[in-house]
Design goal:
With about 200 residues, the chain is mainly alpha-helical. It is about 50% helix and about 5% strand. Helix 1 runs antiparallel to helix 2. It is globular and about 55 Å long.
């Protein structure tokens, strides 16, 4: 099975037909898709003016989409390297059992769904790399009361997410499933109260 870099080379290969190059870009999203496969594809298509079902898109636009994806992947891989070094130090110091922060990170290893958007059509509009930088800054600065990507405080608890974890806080501003480690317990409780008010209003 081809890896991300091999697929990226296929996207760049001017000798390949455009349908294959587009297919290779879609396959790249099976290796790295910060918002999830469908939402990341929708994001790239919107930002680079590619018709989602176009089998022969403009190669310049295709390359621009790949460049954005590669820049974001570089940001995430650098973060994962730092994370691995931290865990190595912690294990050396006797901290063998990972905390809840590490539980979240384990589910997103490789960058798939790290800023998952449960609705593929609702996602941040900024470049992927910038979104990941903001998310990482939020993870490194500790729990807060707002979405680390868009600073929106309107976060609502959703018990019916389409993938594991099957419930969690969702940002109403940019659409990401907010990683629990970046939210304070007060922010989590506030998100659950918003959900309860929504349910009461439709009852």
């Amino acid at each position: 099975m081809a890896g991300f870099r091999s697929l990226a080379r296929q996207v760049r290969d001017p000798r390949s037909d455009l349908a294959l190059r587009r297919y290779s870009l879609r396959k790249c999203l099976e290796r790295f898709a910060p918002y999830g496969h469908r939402a990341t594809w929708d994001h790239l298509c919107e930002r680079h003016d590619i018709e989602p079902e176009d089998r022969a898109p403009d190669p310049v636009r295709l390359m621009a989409a790949l460049d954005e994806l590669e820049e974001a992947r570089a940001v995430w891989l650098a973060y994962e390297a730092q994370f691995a070094q931290r865990r190595k130090r912690e294990k050396h110091d006797g901290l063998r059992r990972p905390g809840t922060f590490d539980d979240w990170h384990r589910r997103t290893w490789g960058g798939n769904g790290v800023a998952r958007c449960d609705d593929p059509a609702v996602h941040p509009t900024e470049p992927l790399a910038e979104v990941l930088r903001r998310l990482i800054a939020g993870l490194e600065s500790g729990p807060g009361g707002a979405c680390p990507v868009c600073a929106e405080k309107g976060i609502v608890w959703r018990p019916d997410l389409s993938q594991a974890p099957w419930s969690g806080p969702v940002c109403r501003g940019c659409g990401i499933v907010v990683p629990r480690p970046v939210l304070t317990s007060e922010a989590m409780e506030r998100a659950k109260r918003v959900r309860q008010r929504e349910l009461a209003s439709v009852a």
